[in-house]
Amino acid sequence: ANLPSYFDGLQLAAREVGGLQIQNRGTIAGNICNASPAADSVPPLLALDAIVEIAGAHGSRKLPLSKFIKGNRRTALDPSELVTGLFIPKRQSTSHATFLKLGARRYLVISIAMAAVTIDFDDSNTIQDARVAIGSCSEVACRLHGLEDALKGKSAGNNLAAELKTDMMSHLSPIDDIRADAHYRLNAAAVIIRRALNDLRTGR
Ligand SMILES: Cc1cc2nc3c(=O)[nH]c(=O)nc-3n(C[C@H](O)[C@H](O)[C@H](O)COP(=O)(O)OP(=O)(O)OC[C@H]3O[C@@H](n4cnc5c(N)ncnc54)[C@H](O)[C@@H]3O)c2cc1C
């Protein structure tokens, strides 16, 4: 679909979900309701400040995605409720996004780590706002607010990747599993965040 550039991260993530059959039939609502730590749409939606619309027998309500997913396979849905929509706050045309997923192979794979970054630049290429989300490195994908704060005010000409410091990832809690151990996941997450920042700096 021909969407504004800040949807690029979500579009890239959609192309990573399973194979073509899953991509043709699966929905974004199903992806977030699955509440898997490795759900590919969640980091880009967090980096877009997505709002989830919920409807049920007792009316409808809206929740930020960050409050909708409560844990591994747990959401804020009551048994009578369905997700009926997702709202993405409108950004300026100078807002850009990307998504990177690392798996044990290139395609049809559950991620080891994934990163979604949305950056709002002003007309002079200075960062007004940044949203960085990491998936598969904690029970619920989460934002890196420390890094986001550090990026604000920086110019696209700066080495943005150098803004990521280890302590900005201290709230992550990756697990050891068959795909990767926790140490590897954390290192991989740092690498793909830096790559994503470089991509947005140079590839717009
Ligand atoms: C072979 C295979 C590979 C896969 N690979 C990936 C992958 O790489 N990345 C990834 O993120 N996921 C993957 N998945 C998981 C899944 O297919 C995707 O998450 C997909 O987006 C789910 O969407 P769906 O519409 O099919 O939801 P469903 O599978 O139909 O539903 C998932 C859950 O959400 C609930 N649900 C669905 N829609 C709503 C709604 N509107 N309101 C309330 N509850 C709802 C269902 O009741 C169910 O509990 C894979 C699945 C398979 C079978």
The gist of it:
The protein has 204 residues and is α+β, with helices and mostly antiparallel strands. It has seven helices and nine strands.
Share of β-strand residues: 25-35%
What is the helix tally?
7
In the sheet with the most strands, the strands line up as 6-7-8-9
CATH superfamily of the domain at 95-202: CO dehydrogenase flavoprotein, C-terminal domain
What does this structure look like?
- This protein is of the alpha+beta class and 204 residues long.
- The chain is globular and about 50 Å long.
- A hairpin with a 6-residue loop joins strand 8 and strand 9.
- It has a domain of 108 residues: CO dehydrogenase flavoprotein, C-terminal domain (Enolase-like, domain 1).
- The strands form 3 sheets. The protein has a 4-stranded antiparallel β-sheet. A 3-stranded antiparallel β-sheet has the order 2-1-5.
- Helices cover 28% and strands 25% of the residues.
- The two termini are 19 Å apart.
Key terms:
alpha+beta; Enolase-like, domain 1; four-stranded antiparallel sheet; three-stranded antiparallel sheet; 7 helices; 9 strands; 25% strand; binds flavin-adenine dinucleotide
Layout of helices and strands:
Elements: H1 8-14, H2 20-25, H3 28-34, H4 42-46, E1 51-56, E2 59-64, H5 65-68, E3 69-71, E4 74-75, E5 82-87, E6 95-102, E7 113-121, E8 127-135, E9 142-143, H6 145-151, H7 182-202
Bound molecules: flavin-adenine dinucleotide (FAD).
Flavin-adenine dinucleotide binds next to helix 2, helix 3 and strand 5.
